[in-house]
Design goal:
The complex is a heterodimer of chains A (165) and B (122).
Chain A lengths: L9 E7 H10 L3 E6 L20 H13 L6 H19 L5 H13 L7 E7 H4 L3 E3 L2 E3 L8 E7 L3 E4 L3
Antiparallel strand pairs in A: 1-3, 2-6, 3-7, 4-6
Helix pairs in contact in A: 3-4
Chain B lengths: L2 H4 L6 H20 L2 E3 L12 H18 L8 H16 L7 H12 L12
Helix pairs in contact in B: 2-3, 2-4
Classes of the chains: A alpha+beta (165), B mainly alpha (122).
């Protein structure tokens, strides 16, 4: 369903502190994020219809655990590092950054410590997000009410940041 | 050499990097979700090249053939092992940074901020 037509007033997304800083410093404080109107994940609930891997709360908790050293694989942090590098490649291809800046972002993504991937919960006004969204096509076998959206070039004025736990 | 890296030897770095990223997405989605998204769904303004999609699919076929099963049937250990291999291969794509690049990156890392509640409105 289009973001204009859902009833939920708030969207949620979890990003890392490093991604936030990269967006702020290199992408004119415009942010890219995957978001959902559902904060948590519970297929039994009519309110939380996304799977754990898409739930902002679950992503937040996973990052917290990896930073605390409770998960030795650090899969989420490594994926985030690769996501930052892939994003820099896209921005380079779009002509939004230079090769020099691209290389700088790549080096930062490799040298930043795990502590710099602290999770941040973004709380986004749905109405303010409408001009910046793309719907994610989900072939959902468990719950047909799941919605996810990609927001790009979202200005910081459209969302707030909180930390939980 | 990491066997995954050998599959992208003649591919331009940005395409190889993207293919490894979307390969990671495929694995993550296969193992954890009864929930199918297009692994190539991304930044709306950037049309993804067919060469990246083809390379990603080639890498998927390689790891599933190597493992003898579909990714959705990987054990936790197999999943972690492949994610580590992808990480090592992707991480090794770039030339080593110069001392100047490292110093500059370290300087910026020291300046990183952790935003606090309501910081976005200030």
């Amino acid at each position: 369903m289009s973001l204009s037509n859902i009833q939920n007033p708030i969207l949620y997304s979890t990003m890392t502190a490093l991604a936030y800083n990269i967006n702020k410093k290199y992408y004119d404080d415009k942010h890219y994020m995957w978001c959902t109107p559902y904060f948590g994940s519970d297929f039994q609930s009519p309110h939380f219809t996304v799977p754990p891997s898409s739930s902002p709360l679950e992503i937040y908790n996973t990052l917290q655990k990896e930073i605390a050293g409770a998960d030795l694989h650090n899969t989420k942090i490594k994926l985030n590092r690769r996501g930052i590098r892939n994003g820099a490649g896209i921005m380079l291809r779009l002509g939004k950054i230079t090769q020099e800046v691209h290389d700088e972002i790549v080096t930062i993504s490799k040298r930043a410590t795990d502590q710099q991937f602290k999770p941040l919960l973004c709380v986004i006004s749905r109405l303010e997000a409408v001009p910046f969204y793309k719907k994610v096509d989900v072939k959902e076998r468990a719950n047909p009410l799941s919605y996810e959206y990609i927001l790009s070039d979202l200005p910081q004025s459209a969302f707030d940041i909180i930390r939980i736990g | 050499m990491n066997e995954l890296k050998s599959l992208v030897l003649n591919t331009p770095l940005p395409e190889a990097r993207s293919a490894f990223y979307y390969l990671s997405r495929y694995l993550k989605q296969s193992v954890h979700d009864d929930y199918q998204k297009d692994i190539f769904d991304d930044y709306p303004q950037a049309e993804l090249g067919e060469e990246v999609k083809a390379l990603t699919k080639k890498l998927i076929v390689f790891i599933e053939k190597h493992q003898g099963k579909l990714a959705k049937d990987f054990t936790d250990e197999e999943y972690s092992d492949w994610m580590n291999k992808i990480d090592a291969a992707e991480n090794g794509l770039d030339p080593l940074p110069s001392t100047g690049q490292i110093d500059q990156a370290e300087k910026i890392i020291k300046e990183l901020v952790i935003p606090t509640l309501g910081a976005s409105k200030k």
